UniProtKB/TrEMBL annotation, chain A:
Species this chain originates from: Trujillonella endophytica
Domain ChsH2 C-terminal OB-fold intervals: 54-118
Domain ChsH2 rubredoxin-like zinc ribbon: 17-52
Lineage: Bacteria, Bacillati, Actinomycetota, Actinomycetes, Geodermatophilales
Pfam families found in the cross-reference section: OB_ChsH2_C (PF01796), zf-ChsH2 (PF12172)
Name assigned to this protein: DNA-binding protein
UniProtKB/TrEMBL annotation, chain B:
Protein name listed in UniProt: Acetyl-CoA acetyltransferase
Keyword terms: Transferase
CDD domains: SCP-x_thiolase
Pfam families assigned to the protein according to its UniProt record, in alphabetical order: Thiolase_C_1 (PF22691)
Keyword Transferase tagged: yes
Transmembrane segments: none
Residues covered by the Thiolase C-terminal domain: 239-381
Entries under PANTHER family matching the protein: ACETYL-COA C-ACETYLTRANSFERASE, NON-SPECIFIC LIPID-TRANSFER PROTEIN-LIKE 2
GO MF: acyltransferase activity, transferring groups other than amino-acyl groups
Length: 141, 385
């Protein structure tokens, strides 16, 4: 795997990456307006309150949209070719890979339920998602 | 008092590089320079008369120095392929305010050959480096395209609607000798082309080329001082807006609110309505973008974009000709296509286009940049209101 695929934490995002390394999906929630948000910031992206905290979320999501990449750039061939937009049960959307399923449109139905899983990228761990029906989040692709 | 809108500012020079396409023997900065000199010649403006410069890619001061210019106003707004639309708008404001009299806007990019190109690196601690790159979301064809399936799904549309955009635009490019892809195609042929990133086949993705273009702007009441003033094209209105620099952080997957905001401002400042627009240049790095734009800019209702294109309204002879050079999908796409969208609007309004539409007076140019991050809109006309 290529080095450029390895994310580097900033002070603001470190709890997200520490959570991923522990196998949990951790994002921020605003205590002023109650909303979850992503990506990490020192303030709520909706109401700009700084009264925010980290919370572990369910890891449940739905498939919003995706592409199946037939032309991976050099160094990315080992990744799932399914580059997807998922919406977490708590509201925020994030980009990810869909794993644990053959990359065929027939297996990737929009709105299908997903559950979080984790994959290594160099010395970091990133959240990915798999169809909720394909077993535990402990498995690997 | 001069306004930035309403036709008080004119484009008096517009030109592209001598050639477009695969040009490994000319560096990026020289593509800027060649386009600039061609546009100045087109305008009848001497380099010494230029006192404002805007560009994206290299710094404005790099292009200025390369050309031997010392402008008193420089704009380096860099929001991907839409940058040059913003430069027109910013230059108009600067000229109206008296910060510059004659502004040169340049684009040059060795997007195909990489000759003398700048390294394009995204650090692993950047937002993209943390939240997109680890998933292989690097190339535009596998990233800019991610929202498209949802857009189509929610409207009862499918990949055939993407293919129909290509079919329509090839009718234009087939009449355009400088276009890279000129073969007429059917929807079935487009759908059967090699898959790049499902649901996008090769023909639904832009060409990748080398080239450049440049514009010269001044006050309309000064246009007659220059030879290019006889073919002046006027800025009636403009707008710009932004949204997420990460595709995943669009407010809504199925519409781009920045298109809605910037186009609404362009209409409001121009005083025109949709019915007044004769011609569209809608930035098409990929085939879903004209569909988003037709709906978000308001030329058709929600879910009507696919049928509008399929029924031929944007083709030669249609009531709203769109992307009449063939677009980024067929004409050229250096990486920042916006300059070429403006160039074709100006050619059409001057009556000098390869696939000329008769009787045009207005054109609406809609740009997009850095995937779904930036939007800019221009309303241009060949007569002052």
């Amino acid at each position: 795997m290529s080095d450029f695929l390895t994310p580097k934490a900033t002070p603001e995002t470190a709890p997200f990456w520490a959570g991923a390394a522990e196998g949990v999906l951790r994002i921020q929630q605003c205590d002023a307006c109650g909303r979850h948000y992503f990506y990490p910031r020192r303030f709520c992206r909706y109401c700009h309150s700084t009264d925010v905290r980290w919370t572990t979320v369910s890891g449940r999501a739905r498939l919003d949209s995706y592409t199946i990449n037939h032309r991976p750039l050099r160094g990315t061939e080992s990744l799932s070719p399914v580059i997807a937009l998922v919406q977490l049960e708590e509201g925020p959307r994030m980009l990810t890979n869909i794993v644990g399923v053959e990359p065929d449109p027939a297996n990737l139905v929009l709105d299908m339920p997903l559950t979080v899983d984790f994959e290594p990228r160099g010395d970091m761990t990133v959240p990915v998602f798999r169809p909720a029906s394909t077993g535990s989040a402990e498995g690997t692709r | 008092m001069t306004s930035m809108h309403g036709g008080d500012i004119a484009v008096i020079g517009a030109a592209e590089t001598d050639e477009l396409g695969v040009l490994p023997d000319i560096s990026m900065i020289e593509l800027h320079a060649q386009a600039a000199l061609n546009a100045l010649r087109d305008a009848g403006v001497a380099p010494a008369d230029v006192d404002g410069l805007a560009t994206a890619g290299p710094l404005g001061i790099e292009v200025a120095h390369h050309l031997g210019l010392t402008p008193r106003w420089v704009d380096g707004t860099s929001v991907g392929g839409s940058s040059f639309l913003l430069h027109v708008r910013h230059a108009a404001a600067a000229i109206a305010a008296g910060a510059a009299d004659v502004v040169l806007i340049t684009h040059g990019e060795s997007g195909r050959s990489g000759t003398g190109a700048r390294a394009y690196a995204r650090g692993p601690a950047s937002l993209t480096g943390q939240f997109e790159v680890p998933y292989g979301a690097l190339a535009p064809y596998s990233t800019f395209t991610v929202p498209a399936l949802r857009f189509l799904h929610d409207r009862g549309m499918d990949a055939t609607d993407l293919a129909e955009v290509v079919v329509a635009q090839r009718e234009w490019s087939s009449r355009t000798p400088r276009a890279m892809r000129r073969e007429l195609v059917t929807a079935d042929q487009v759908l059967a082309a090699p898959m790049v990133a499902y649901p996008f086949t090769k023909d639904m993705c832009c060409v990748v080329t080398d080239g450049g273009g440049a514009l010269v702007l001044t006050r309309s009441d000064r246009a007659a001082d220059f030879a290019g003033g006889e073919r002046a094209i006027y800025l009636l209105g403009s707008g710009e807006s932004n949204e997420a620099t990460l595709v995943s952080q669009m407010e809504e997957t199925t519409r781009f609110r920045a298109f809605q905001r910037s186009s609404a401002e362009a209409f409001a400042t121009s005083g025109l309505t949709h019915a007044d627009i004769d011609h569209l240049m809608f930035y098409d790095a990929f085939a879903h973008l004209p569909l988003y734009m037709l709906e978000d800019v308001g030329f058709v209702g929600h879910g009507e974009s696919g049928a509008f294109v399929r029924e031929g309204h944007t083709r030669p002879g249609g009531r709203l000709p769109m992307n009449t050079n063939g677009g980024g999908l067929a004409y050229t796409h250096t990486g920042m296509y916006g300059m070429f969208a403006i160039q074709e609007a100006i050619r059409q309004l001057r009556g000098e286009a390869a696939a000329q539409v008769p009787g045009l007076t207005t054109s609406f140019v809609q740009g997009v940049g850095m995937f779904f991050a930036a939007s800019a809109s221009l309303v241009l006309a060949n007569r002052r209101p």
